Amino acid sequence: MKNILLLTLGIFSISFASESVEGLMTWKILNTLILLALLAWIIKKWGVSFFENRRRSIASMVEEAQKAQEESRKALEEAQAKLEDAKMKFNESLKIAEETAKKEREVALKEAEEIASRIKAQAKEAIMVEIKRGENELRKYAVHKAIEISEKIVKEKINPEVEKEIILKTLKSIS
């Protein structure tokens, strides 16, 4: 088919060269019509299938884009749901942590109060022991001093006659 068209064009071209001006115009119009017919045939043969394939390709891309958009929307909704779930879990964890911290604080305060009361009791006991020890030491010291002073007074005031009299009184009281 191609060869026939080329041969026809060649013949027309040669004819144009040998014709006059009026015949030339007729041939030009005829050549233009043949050229347009050839273009229509080429477009119909290859162009229609090219544009149909292009249309299908574009339609396929649009469908894929719509699917991708739908998937993205679903993924976004899932991500938002997960975010909300994570926020709820975070708030719950925060509440639990606050409650736990409050309980731990209360337990620590109770333990501290118990320890403080034990320390106070131990301190009171230690103070009482020290007071008793001090009192005993003071008594010992007072007794010792009283004995020393009594001995000194007795030595100063007692002479052999008074001593005999005391011994006799003591012996009488014993018997």
TrEMBL record:
Keywords: ATP synthesis, Cell membrane, CF(0), Coiled coil, Hydrogen ion transport, Ion transport, Membrane, Transmembrane, Transmembrane helix, Transport
Record's GO cellular component terms: endomembrane system; plasma membrane; proton-transporting ATP synthase complex
InterPro entries, A to Z: ATP_synth_b/b'su_bac/chlpt, ATP_synthase_B_chain
Main location: membrane
Residue stretches in coiled coil: 51-96
Pfam family, one: ATP-synt_B
Membrane topology: Single-pass membrane protein
CDD domains named in the record: ATP-synt_Fo_b
Subcellular location: Cell membrane; Endomembrane system
One GO MF term attached to the UniProt entry: proton-transporting ATP synthase activity, rotational mechanism
Transmembrane portions of the chain: 27-47
Recorded family membership: Belongs to the ATPase B chain family.
PANTHER family the UniProt entry points to: ATP SYNTHASE SUBUNIT B, ATP SYNTHASE SUBUNIT B', CHLOROPLASTIC
Record note on quaternary structure: F-type ATPases have 2 components, F(1) - the catalytic core - and F(0) - the membrane proton channel. F(1) has five subunits: alpha(3), beta(3), gamma(1), delta(1), epsilon(1). F(0) has three main subunits: a(1), b(2) and c(10-14). The alpha and beta chains form an alternating ring which encloses part of the gamma chain. F(1) is attached to F(0) by a central stalk formed by the gamma and epsilon chains, while a peripheral stalk is formed by the delta and b chains.
Function as written in the Swiss-Prot or TrEMBL entry: F(1)F(0) ATP synthase produces ATP from ADP in the presence of a proton or sodium gradient. F-type ATPases consist of two structural domains, F(1) containing the extramembraneous catalytic core and F(0) containing the membrane proton channel, linked together by a central stalk and a peripheral stalk. During catalysis, ATP synthesis in the catalytic domain of F(1) is coupled via a rotary mechanism of the central stalk subunits to proton translocation. Component of the F(0) channel, it forms part of the peripheral stalk, linking F(1) to F(0). The b'-subunit is a diverged and duplicated form of b found in plants and photosynthetic bacteria.
HAMAP family assigned: ATP_synth_b_bprime (MF_01398)
Protein name: ATP synthase subunit b
Taxonomic source organism: Persephonella hydrogeniphila
Gene: atpF
